[in-house]
Amino acid sequence: MKATLVSLLVAAGLLSAGAVQAQDAEALAKSKNCLSCHAIDKKVVGPAYKDVAKKYTVKDEAMLAKKVIAGGKGSWGEVPMPPNPSVTPEEATKLVKWILSLK
Fold it and tell me: pTM for the whole thing?
């Protein structure tokens, strides 16, 4: 009984930590103006983040993080994603991990 309770408390802590990290990443996306062109569940100028998460995997994290900073074009149509040099490599990685978690 005691072990079950401890396991449940640990699991709840992990879930709540994950929720806090997701909130932090979404706040970061807002602060870096990512949400000017993207939304979580619908296409705006760029693709919905959920669509990005469906298309790519963890293996693509480094490539996507580079695109967050340098910009890109051709993966989602003719409209290019402009570079965002205000995003650090660490922030880009955090954003990409969050986006890929939205599956």
Answer: 0.78
